[in-house]
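Example for tutorial group B:
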């Protein structure tokens, strides 16, 4: 019995060493193969849990959003002609590895969808959304599937700014900074706290003059909506990302705020359907 246990530990150790030694390209290729092999089991598992009705409801909700103003005024978000037949690409989540649950997932669209439509519907850096909320960005595109890096991954850092309404209901665009995941990505886990850094309003912009960290009104408050700025060159401006849940106290010499936030997308840990936007 002991020899069997020792042998198992040795085999697992060798497998881990092999996986850690893979290049990024080889690792992505291996993940793609795993996604393809796991897709039937993933589908059966979710069907056995009675998720078909939930997925149908989610799909209808997304289609409803699509019919309302081309899904949150695409003309402003991605600069498309409103009379164009370009629409976001509906995709189904087909695989999500437990050891990278809060980092990435695979969807069932890829290069074949570009070929069938004769348009670039999906590519590397295509934003992925759920309604008006940002979910992540396409990282790898294969023939019939694509890998999406989630906003809860530490390596994805969308540029965002705080948005709230004043007493008259007018929008106030305030502090700007970056968000990223909280680095707790090992194995499947609950919770999707985002970490924000560099939040200040040091320079004039189209929304107003520069403001001090302790200005009135405050440039950052708990409950503020964080939306994309469009300044990172990947995400169009105006997508909802998160809401501020905690603001760290300023220390002597600090020139920006650090925050915690939660994604605006509901059930980001249990996604089944998403939309893919054309890359900028």
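The residue assignment follows.
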């Amino acid at each position: 019995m002991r020899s069997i246990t020792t042998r198992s530990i040795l085999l697992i150790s060798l497998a881990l060493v092999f996986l850690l030694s893979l290049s990024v390209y080889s690792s992505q290729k291996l993940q793609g193969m795993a996604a393809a092999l796991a897709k039937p089991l993933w589908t059966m598992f979710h069907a056995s849990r009675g998720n078909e009705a939930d997925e149908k409801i989610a799909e209808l909700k997304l289609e409803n959003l699509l019919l309302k103003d081309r899904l949150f005024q695409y003309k402003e978000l991605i600069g498309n002609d409103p009379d164009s037949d370009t629409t976001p690409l509906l995709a189904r989540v087909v695989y999500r590895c437990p050891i990278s649950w809060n980092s990435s997932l695979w969807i069932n669209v890829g290069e074949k969808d570009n070929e069938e439509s004769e348009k670039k519907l999906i590519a590397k850096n295509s934003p992925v959304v759920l309604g008006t909320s940002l979910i992540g960005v396409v990282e790898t595109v294969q023939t019939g599937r694509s890998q999406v890096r989630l906003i809860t991954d530490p390596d994805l850092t969308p540029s965002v700014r705080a948005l709230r309404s004043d007493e008259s209901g007018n929008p106030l665009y305030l502090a700007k900074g970056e968000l990223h995941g909280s680095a707790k990505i090992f194995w499947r886990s609950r919770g999707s706290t985002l970490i924000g850094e560099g939040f200040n309003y040091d320079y004039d912009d189209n929304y107003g003059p520069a403001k001090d960290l302790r200005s009135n009104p405050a440039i950052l408050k708990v409950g503020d909506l964080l939306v994309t700025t469009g300044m990172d060159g990947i995400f169009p401006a105006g997508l909802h990302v998160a809401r501020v849940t905690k603001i760290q106290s300023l220390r002597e010499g600090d020139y920006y705020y650090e925050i915690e936030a939660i994604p605006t997308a509901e059930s980001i840990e249990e996604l089944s359907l998403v939309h893919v936007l054309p890359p900028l």
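The CA atoms of residues 26 and 133 lie 31 Å apart. Compare this with the pattern of hydrophobic and polar residues in the output above.
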